[in-house]
Amino acid sequence: MSTYIAPIRDMQFVLNEVAGLSDICALPGNEECSVDLVESILDEASKFATGVLDPINKVGDQIGHVCKDGVVTTAPGFKEAYKLFAETGWNSMPFDPEYGGQGLPAVVSMAVNEMWKGANMAFGLCPMLTGGAIEAIAHHASDELKQIYLPKMIEGTWTGTMNLTEPNAGSDLAAISSKAKAVGDGSYLVSGTKIFITWGEHDVAENIIHLVLARLPDAPPGLKGISLFLVPKFLVNADGSLGKRNDLICASIEHKLGIHGSPTAVMSYGENEGAVGYLIGDENKGIGYMFTMMNHARVNVGLEGVGIAERAYQHALWYARERVQGKIIGDNSGEKKTILHHPDVRRMLMDVKSRTEAMRTLAYYSAANIDRAHAGDAAAQSRVDLLTPVVKGWSTEQGVELSSTALQVFGGVGFVEETGAAQYYRDSRITTIYEGTTAIQANDLVGRKLAREKVPGAAMKTLIAEMSATAEEIAGDAQLATIAVNLKNGINSLSTAADWILANYDSAPAAVHAGSVPFLKLTGIVVGGWLMAKSAAIAVKHLAEGTTDDFYKAKLATATYFAAHQIPFAAAYAAEIIGGSDSVFALPENLF
User: Fold this and answer.
1) Domain of 497?
2) Which of 545, 540, 405 is nearest to 483 (CA)?
């Protein structure tokens, strides 16, 4: 059994009782949204995830896609699934009704998107990249481009991509060499090669809209000289119909460790006269515009860590309930029992379950703040800015660890492809790399979001104060006392590490960045622990009111486990950040 079942009960709990869905629905522009409507949406999305996307997940992994003469044929069932996906409106959920979107809150899309990623991560990458392209066009393109491209992209008839990376320009975007030159009619001719383009070529949609970073003649060097261009696979006629094929081609597709169902293309622009493109926004402002798309993608990639961990957990739990093996330590009954009774199997499953719940709560909490920020809440925007690299970096690192732990539950058969457990591990590995590696997220956190904030450390200190208040509030409850103690210790570690970074950033930036990834993980553990503590307090309240719903007992148990087994790592990370930089640089280059 490897069927994905959406964890709707936990999703609803986080949405309604932690993220504040009813308050989000009351925000301006969300009047059509309601808790009942969202419940119906989750039910239907669950059916789609389980009935349509899950059955083609393994096919996508085993068969993948084929590229011949620049034409990519996706894995069996993907084209039909995408057609149904678009026809049933799933692509349009969070977007502006002016262009055909449903205008639903970001936090609702977050929950639904988790299902796509859990059921079929390779498939979910296509609408994820399209969504990011829509955001960039909606925020920065001319009204003319919006009218031409947004309706088709929002309904899913056309898909979108992000074209940043080049053979000689990976994370260093300043090294981009792709060119663009004005034609004189408002269009440009784009030329160059881009690599690692997710869903860069495929057969599931009528048109593919590429957003491409390139340089204009005489542009300033470095990041300040990069512009963003919209380059369609097929040109669009004045009446909106598709015209001739543009001068671009998929030169090849990558053969990857995982996500085999997602075609990762090498795109060649301008093999002949040049690919026709259209400038988005102003010249030389492309990096800023692309970050609109990247921030959208980063939150959603963080959600991939949640989805893949959830799926891996479900599969491992099923196996642990079925597999009978070995004598149970401490059990003298002589009865044969499943491996779920083994202490270490219980530990592994609790670890995966509790950490997945913490990641989910962090992702939905962040999405709720996106909705509040859209309504004009400056404090919410500050919180989103601070937590975006954490959602991306910490959650994806967790996803890799937890898919590995879930595989361990299977023992030797987990290493065998037939069981399916290995796919989750392979698929998860890319998430810490694309859309900015964990180190890039960590550098952003300690740099732009902490030390170089307008008021250095202000957003983090505000968050720490809020978390400390929660720890104090729950300390008097006997059922929450252990959680409170561990949370306070974690907050102290985070505060100490943040203060050290602020004190040393200007004088020793290399030392600070040597500990940036540990700081990101420290932040994720403590913020995740805080949200789990809030969840536990809500559960205790329901239990005190006499509920018979065992869900709340389980929530209290997983929150307690997280506090006891994960938050203690905060002290180790703080020690590594403050006292470990010298050892990072202790070995001379010639001794590596």
Assistant:
1) 452-592
2) 540
